[in-house]
Automatic annotation (TrEMBL), chain A:
Keyword flag Chaperone: no
UniProt protein name: Biotin-dependent carboxyltransferase family protein
The species this protein was found in: Methylobacterium longum
Domain Carboxyltransferase per the UniProt entry, residue ranges: 25-305
A Pfam family the protein falls into: CT_A_B
Alphabetical list of InterPro entries matching this protein: CT_A_B (IPR003778), Cyclophilin-like_dom_sf (IPR029000), PxpC (IPR052708)
Keywords assigned by UniProt, alphabetized: ATP-binding, Hydrolase, Nucleotide-binding
NCBIfam families from the UniProt entry: urea_amlyse_rel (TIGR00724)
Top-level taxon of the source organism: Bacteria
Automatic annotation (TrEMBL), chain B:
Keywords: ATP-binding, Hydrolase, Nucleotide-binding
Protein name: Allophanate hydrolase subunit 1
Domain annotation Carboxyltransferase: ranges: 8-208
Domain of life assignment: Bacteria
SUPFAM superfamilies in alphabetical order: Cyclophilin-like, PH0987 N-terminal domain-like
One of the record's GO molecular function terms: hydrolase activity
Lineage: Bacteria, Pseudomonadati, Pseudomonadota, Alphaproteobacteria, Hyphomicrobiales
Matches recorded under SMART domains: AHS1
Organism: Methylobacterium longum
InterPro entries: CT_C_D, Cyclophilin-like_dom_sf, PxpB
One matching Pfam family: CT_C_D
Length: 338, 245
């Protein structure tokens, strides 16, 4: 059996699958990827089920090697710096990692989360049916904790891939990150209309202290019309709660299952990953959409990630932020590959 | 008894969750409606309805809107909520051994001072009540209980204390709780139970459901240790009975 060997890992690098579902009623957080679309896309590129277990790479970065045999890998890490034995690679890449080679992923100019999927199955014992890591309750993943140097992940049914690195073409990951779509509620009636308008207009600045549990926003504080304590009710992924200080908090993958602050709006599923990718200091505004519009956006994503991920040979050696170069490059590549 | 509306409010929490709200307060009558709807939805599975999360006053329904459209879900909820006004099954009464002695009852003296009671009275009052499990939340297996005597309704701490031990029995803000995983907390630790409400490797991982009732049976530290060993060996030390309505 081949092994993915962790040579180094910064804080916050964890194993994540599609999430631990079915236990919210007992207080068990679903966890799962911060950017579900990118996670699923990395699995798609690796030939795995979309909700397979992959490594979520934080800005702490990761360095991995292969032992016992070559490993096929797919990496999506827009904004990160990627190198194989010191030679730069694209930030969206499929490759075969031979024993002795070292793949390094480091934080770059943008992006908070990248996904490294191994072709095959990371053979880690599930907890409550899932490999998603929830570090706050030490649940799942690799011993309930983030990955660290010296960890060795067995790979079952591994497939080595097809040799030289290829750039992955994933046009659906070129997303507008500064306008985050929300559905109002469930407690928007705790705010006067002018405060709802102020919430939508912002602008809000992402604070650097966010983590897998929440994204904290700074801006002009909102005022509550009916107090800021409610008797606890359920909390959805992307719920935007407004505590007493009036500054919104977007609840993310590691959120608690219930909570006691009014939730002014909820980030739609397709925009969860977009807000997750924003670094501290980035500004954003919110855009109100209907449930029907949100479902339509969700369907577009679902259909996109079902498409095969196109590949093209790596010819350049300068890979400064392909994703930040924008849609033109991606569009041109798609035409060529289509 | 407060008034419980005939028709719940339906509130969207994004495009993949719906809040069915029966009230805004902690009230057994509201909780009964929440749990009756939860039971009814559980008895007739609906494709695309992924999770049901009962809370004090509402039921959150997580769904896949690409499988189950909102209108279908809303229609089902409205028709079931109209008929489901009482729980179908009699809830279970669980008797949990609880050690209030040192080192487990860490905060009893503080609670006694704040409540103006003797430490023994804190224990006898806490152990003399029957509690209702309203909901889980906050952490894995953290059960929120109602039914705490008014004299023990001390406010929660201004700032959290260090992480409580495993399986802590706690009070705070007029409520009681049984916790599982150690976490910093604003609650007061009165004791610990050898029963594990949550054990991920056990089948089932959870045995106490929302709507069940709990009583605490005082045991000394030596008994606690013996029961903890039996629980670790796979024996269930919580005793099951039938709750009074």
């Amino acid at each position: 059996m081949s092994i993915l060997a962790i040579e180094a890992a910064g804080p916050g690098v964890t194993l994540q699958d599609g999430g631990r579902h079915g236990y919210l009623r007992f207080g068990i957080t679903a966890a799962g990827p911060m950017d579900p679309l990118m996670h699923a896309s990395a699995n798609r590129a690796a030939g795995n089920p979309l909700d397979a277990t992959a490594i979520e790479v934080s800005t702490g970065g990761i360095t991995v090697g292969a032992a016992g045999g070559p490993l096929g890998l797919a990496l999506l890490a827009p904004g990160f710096r990627v190198a194989l034995d010191g030679a730069a690679l694209p930030e969206a890449v499929a490759l075969t990692l031979e024993p002795g080679q070292i793949l390094a992923v480091r934080a770059g100019d943008a992006g908070s989360w990248g996904y490294l999927a191994v072709s095959g199955r990371l053979d880690v014992a599930p907890v409550l049916g899932s490999n998603a890591t929830h570090t706050r309750s030490a649940l799942g993943g690799f011993d309930g904790r983030g990955l660290a140097a010296g960890d060795r992940l067995p790979v079952a049914d591994g497939r080595a891939g097809d040799g030289a690195p290829h750039r992955l073409v994933v046009p659906w990951l070129a997303r507008n990150a500064r306008t985050i779509r929300v559905v109002p509620g469930p407690q928007d009636d705790y705010f006067a209309p002018d405060q709802i308008a102020a919430f939508l207009d912002g602008p809000w600045t992402v604070l650097p202290r966010g983590d897998r549990m929440a994204c904290f926003l700074d801006g002009e504080p909102l005022k509550h019309a009916r107090g800021h304590d409610i008797v606890s009710d359920g909390v959805a992924m992307g719920a935007i709660q407004v505590p007493g200080n009036g500054l919104p908090i977007v609840l993310m993958a590691d959120r608690q299952s219930t909570g006691g602050y009014p939730k002014i709006a909820t980030v739609i599923g397709p925009d969860i990953g977009r807000i997750a990718q924003l670094r501290g200091g980035t500004s954003l505004t919110f855009q109100k959409v209907t449930v029907a519009e949100a479902v339509a956006a969700r369907r577009i994503e679902r259909d996109a990630v079902r498409e095969p991920v196109a590949r093209e040979p790596v010819v350049r050696t300068d890979f400064a932020s392909d994703f930040l170069l924008g849609l033109n490059l991606v569009g041109g590549v798609t035409d060529g590959a289509g | 008894m407060s008034d419980v509306p005939d028709e719940p409010r339906l509130l969207d929490a994004g495009e993949a969750a719906l809040v069915v709200e029966f009230g805004t307060t902690v009230d057994p009558a509201i909780s009964d409606r929440v749990l009756a709807l939860d039971d009814a939805l559980g008895a007739a599975p609906l494709a695309g309805l992924l999770e049901r999360v009962p809370t004090y006053r509402s039921l959150m329904l997580h769904y896949d809107p690409l499988v189950l459209d909102r209108e279908t879900l809303v229609a089902r909820v409205r028709s079931l909520a109209a008929g489901a006004t009482a729980r179908a099954a009699t809830p279970t009464l669980w008797t949990l051994p609880c050690c209030y002695d040192a080192p487990h009852g860490e905060d009893i003296v503080q609670v006694a001072q704040r409540a103006g009671l003797s430490p023994d009275a804190v224990v006898s009052t806490h152990a003399g009540a029957t509690y209702r499990v309203y909901m889980y939340g906050f952490a894995p297996g953290f059960a929120y209980l109602g039914g705490l005597a008014d004299v023990l309704a001390v406010p929660r701490r201004q700032s959290p204390r260090p992480p409580h031990p495993r399986n802590a029995v706690m009070i705070g803000g007029g409520l009681a709780a049984v916790a599982t995983v150690p976490m910093p907390t604003g609650w007061y630790v009165l004791g610990a139970t050898p029963a594990r409400l949550y054990a991920p490797e056990r089948d089932p991982s959870f045995f106490v459901g929302a709507g069940d009732q709990i009583r605490f049976e005082p045991v000394d530290a030596a008994t606690f240790d013996a029961l903890t060993a039996r629980e670790a060996a796979g024996e269930a030390v919580a005793r099951r009975g039938e709750a009074r309505r």
